[in-house]
């Protein structure tokens, strides 16, 4: 709940992601076991302007009728570190395993709706009366563009 409250309190103009540390100290105190360190960031989506509808020759309605809306965000940097005791059977070789995912930009686009009119443009051969047309209905595909990566390490 704290993570969600922190994400809601931040405005998109201030930050692309809200850093969050996951508190696991109580587990170490209670159980006496070394716990992993987890630090991440909650992405804050930024909604862009919808694309403008375009009119095409021969169509009565613009395409798309329901425009796609771009949403950008940054997947924040994530670091997970866990103790690795007695790596080679010797306490001197105690180490820490890490998994790190650097910050990545992410772009999404919502689906749009394409609707065709049930009538054609006025037909000169038919005294200016429009003809009936087969109805068209469709959705444009949603998009998700990003390149997340991860690094595995041992210290």
Characterization of this structure:
This protein is mostly beta strands. The chain has one domain. A hairpin with a 5-residue loop joins strand 9 and strand 10. The longest helix is centred in the N-terminal third of the chain and has 8 residues. It is rod-shaped and about 95 Å long. The N terminus is likely disordered.
Anisotropy-based shape: rod-shaped
Give the strand content: 35-45%
Oligomerization category of the chains in this entry: single chain
- Counting DSSP E segments of at least 2 residues, the number of strands comes to 13
Distance between the termini: 33 Å
Low-confidence stretches: 1-14
Could you estimate the helical fraction of the residues in percent?
under 10%
Rounded to an integer in angstroms, the radius of gyration calculated over CA atoms is: 27 Å
Report strand order across the widest sheet. Answer: 1-2-5-6-13
Number of helices: 2
Provide mean pLDDT, rounded: 80
Provide the succession of SSEs.
HEHEEEEEEEEEEEE
Total individual domains: 1
Tell me the major beta sheet: 5 strands, antiparallel
What structural category characterises the helix and strand content? mainly beta
From the structure above, extract its key features.
5-stranded antiparallel sheet; 155 residues; mainly beta; single chain; 13 strands; 41% strand
């Amino acid at each position: 709940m704290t993570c969600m409250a922190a994400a809601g309190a931040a405005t998109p103009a201030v930050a692309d992601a809200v850093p969050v540390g996951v508190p696991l100290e109580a587990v170490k105190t209670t159980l006496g076991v070394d716990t992993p360190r987890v630090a991440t960031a909650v992405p804050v989506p930024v909604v862009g302007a919808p694309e403008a509808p375009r009119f095409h020759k021969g169509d009565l309605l613009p395409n798309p009728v329901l425009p796609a809306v771009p949403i950008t965000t940054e997947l924040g940097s994530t670091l997970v570190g866990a103790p690795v005791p007695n790596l080679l059977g010797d306490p001197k070789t105690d180490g820490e395993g890490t998994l790190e995912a650097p910050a990545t930009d992410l772009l999404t686009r919502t689906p749009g709706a394409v609707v065709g009119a049930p009538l054609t443009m006025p037909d000169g051969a038919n005294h200016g009366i429009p003809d009936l047309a087969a109805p068209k209905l469709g959705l444009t595909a949603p998009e998700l563009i990003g390149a997340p990566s991860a690094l595995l390490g041992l210290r």
